[in-house]
Design goal:
This protein is an alpha+beta fold. The protein has three domains: about 70 residues, no CATH class; about 170 residues, ATP-grasp fold, B domain (D-amino Acid Aminotransferase, Chain A, domain 1), CATH 3.30.470.20; about 60 residues, Dna Ligase, domain 1 (2-Layer Sandwich), CATH 3.30.1490. It has 13 helices and eleven strands. The chain has a five-stranded antiparallel β-sheet. It has a four-stranded antiparallel β-sheet with strand order 1-4-2-3, covered by helices on one side. A two-stranded antiparallel ribbon has the order 8-9. Strand 8 and strand 9 form a beta hairpin. Helix 2 crosses helix 3 and helix 9 crosses helix 10. The chain starts with a helix and ends with a helix.
Length: about 325
């Protein structure tokens, strides 16, 4: 039964102007009547807790009711989070420093908290790692993340003060990804997104993809990147890339690499790592893990207590039956 409180909140906070623009976009794609599209959007909102962006991204205007009910929509994703991730435990992965401390041994990189270290300690860090990443302590979609490369001419103390003033308190050793991953796109660290559900003490892998950059130094979709599906058995890319607009990429537009069939190194080790990590944090039962692949093996970048559901069901990633992922997630919940 639809979550009435969720629906009422969504109705109250809806950007109706944007909703109409989305309906017009779908009209241009399909030729369907805009008013009819809007009415169907509203119906999907009430019946499947689907926002208008779900309706667009998942191309729900092409689906029948039997297919639509299998989709993890915004409302369904919120329900998974509500059931499995109590808000009082979000800080365990939300605060990047707390995450690094908790998963020491999994993340494979040196880091500093500029709130607690001196200028001299930062200078020594820069000598060891002249290329590094600076981040705010919280946030998503690559916001506030910057890459630095220092030299003998760099004023280290001034850089230290600048980072603190910008609240980029976390500095991390720059990770060099595996050459086979870099070959696909070298300008960003392209990360696996592995989603686990913890049920009855067992971690289940329910989604497996890789985000790949496209023109920028970060790989997430909100910065122009794309997502591919990685087969959970073989560790090979099994479907074309898709960007935030659902556009399909069979080859990477900047490198020309054919995506389908690429083998992700250390994939099985990455899966075992996130399952072990998931079992070590039973306070949160539904997590999206970001994993980088280095020459030495997989390392954890971060975990997300509110995994973005937008990459779950691009049509180019689904089979001809167009069935969504809710049955797989619900089966994992039952153990």
């Amino acid at each position: 039964m639809p979550n009435l409180k969720y629906i009422l909140r969504r109705v109250a906070g809806m950007d109706y102007k944007q909703m109409v623009e989305v309906a017009k976009t779908i009209h241009q794609r399909t030729g369907k009547n805009t008013l009819g599209i809007l009415m169907d959007m509203v119906r999907c909102g009430f019946r499947y807790q689907a926002g208008y962006m779900d309706y667009l991204v998942f191309e729900m205007y092409t689906l029948n009711d039997a297919q639509r009910k299998t989709y993890i929509t915004r409302g369904k994703n919120n329900e998974y989070v509500r059931r499995l991730n109590p808000q009082e435990n979000w800080h365990l992965v939300e605060d990047k420093i707390e995450f690094l401390k908790r998963f020491d041994g999994y993340h494979g990189r040196e880091w500093l908290d500029l709130r607690e270290c001196s200028r001299e300690a930062f200078q020594e860090f820069c000598k060891r790692h002249p290329k590094f990443v600076a981040k705010p302590l919280s946030g998503t979609c690559g916001r506030g993340v910057e890459f630095f490369e220092v030299s003998e001419d760099t004023t280290i103390y001034g850089l230290y003060d600048m980072l603190k003033a910008g609240q980029q308190y976390l500095v991390e050793e720059y990770l060099v990804q595996h050459p086979d991953v870099s070959r696909i796109y070298p300008l960003s660290v392209n990360t696996l997104r592995l989603v686990t559900i913890l049920s009855h003490g067992q971690a289940h892998l329910v989604f497996s993809s890789m985000r790949i950059g496209n023109g920028k130094q970060v790989d997430n979709l909100n910065s122009g990147g794309m997502a591919v599906i990685v087969d959970m058995e073989t560790g090979k890319i099994s479907a074309p890339g898709a960007d935030k607009d659902g556009k399909a990429y069979y080859t990477h537009p900047m490198t020309g690499v054919e995506l389908v069939g690429c083998q992700i190194p250390y994939y099985r080790e990455a899966v075992e790592m996130v399952k072990k990590a998931a079992c070590s944090i039973p306070e949160l039962g539904y997590l999206g893990w970001d994993v980088a692949i280095t020459e030495k093996g997989p390392v954890l970048i971060e975990a997300n207590h509110f995994p973005g559901h937008d990459i779950y069901q691009f049509q180019v990633h689904l089979g001809p039956d167009k069935i969504g992922l809710a049955p797989r997630f619900d089966a994992a919940l039952k153990g």
